[in-house]
Write a structure and sequence with these properties.
By secondary structure, the protein is α/β, with parallel strands linked by helices. It has a single domain, classed as Alpha/Beta hydrolase fold, catalytic domain (Rossmann fold, 3-Layer(aba) Sandwich). The strands form 2 sheets. The protein has a 4-stranded parallel beta sheet. Helix 11 links the parallel strand 5 and strand 6.
């Protein structure tokens, strides 16, 4: 009886964590948007950071969300990831890709769990990766962090994610593509997508009159300038007054959240943009 209970528990856990950011873009974000819209009767202003920008852009490219949204502010925008300069992210993606079946078997990735410690240890043991300042090695040299806020920030995150979600992002880093999760099996891809390869998210399909504010950091190792430029190239036909790009020269990926000057540098211009739309 104990074995049966354990088997069902594991089966349920695997099912619960069987998702990547594809599902966040297709289901979670639209559900949240619709709930707020239904409760308020108003269109939304959206603010996303990092993965929250990726899921939003993916949804926009499918014409989702835009009918209940007034504007979106995307901080540390992530779409393409093939040219990121984060040594930690690049090496981690190699490790995850080299043994996908093992990592997928874990289903849930706890950032303070044993698997995370093992992954970080393997990353930091890789020649050329300096983990003496892990945050900088991962996100870039943040300029202006208010370290008094770290305790409050860490009390709410980072949260667990699906290992499949990390595998998906590792595929993007290694291949430079912006596509749905690749099952690395033509039959599985065919079953899920009706085609042998994963469908791409075409950023040129984002309606060109959607009001977008992109807050970028020139030192951001996860939302690097070359990959951001690929996104901007896709938005080259956007209505000019509907697209604002603000680049802060000394910002990296966490500055958007915890910089001492974030209000003046980023949030005030963001709110001004919202008021215009």
């Amino acid at each position: 009886m104990g074995f049966v209970k354990h088997w069902w528990k594991r089966k349920a856990m695997l099912a619960f964590w069987n998702w990547s950011w594809d599902e966040l873009a297709a289901f979670d974000l639209p559900t949240m948007f619709q709930y707020v819209h239904n409760q308020t009767g108003q269109q939304l202003h959206y603010v996303g950071h990092s993965l929250g920008t990726l899921t939003a852009l993916a949804a926009f490219s499918k014409k989702q969300l835009v009918d209940v949204m007034r504007s979106a502010a995307l901080l540390g925008p992530v779409a393409y990831m093939g040219q990121i300069i984060s040594p930690v992210a690049k090496v981690a993606s190699d490790i995850l890709a080299a043994n996908e079946s093992f990592w997928l078997g874990l289903a849930k990735f706890d950032p303070i769990g044993d698997a995370s410690r093992t992954l970080i240890q393997d990353v930091c043991n890789t020649p050329g990766v300096d983990c003496s300042d892990l945050l900088t090695a991962f996100t870039g040299p943040n300029c202006c962090l208010d370290r008094s806020k770290f305790g409050a920030f860490l009390s709410h995150g980072p949260q667990s994610t699906a290992t499949k979600n990390l595998i998906h992002q590792s595929q993007m880093i290694k291949r430079g593509t912006l596509a749905m999760y690749d099952y690395n099996n033509e039959d599985e891809n065919k079953k899920h997508y009706g085609q042998l390869t994963p469908p791409v998210y075409d950023m040129t399909n984002i309606p060109n009159d959607v009001a977008l504010f992109l807050g970028c950091g020139a030192k951001d190792a996860l939302s690097d300038t070359k990959d951001v430029q690929l996104l901007l190239d896709s938005l080259k036909d956007h209505v000019k007054d509907k697209l604002v790009v603000q680049t802060t020269e000394n910002y990296a990926h966490v500055d958007f959240l915890l910089a001492t000057n974030a209000k003046e540098v980023m949030y005030d211009p963001l709110i001004a943009f919202f008021k215009l739309h």
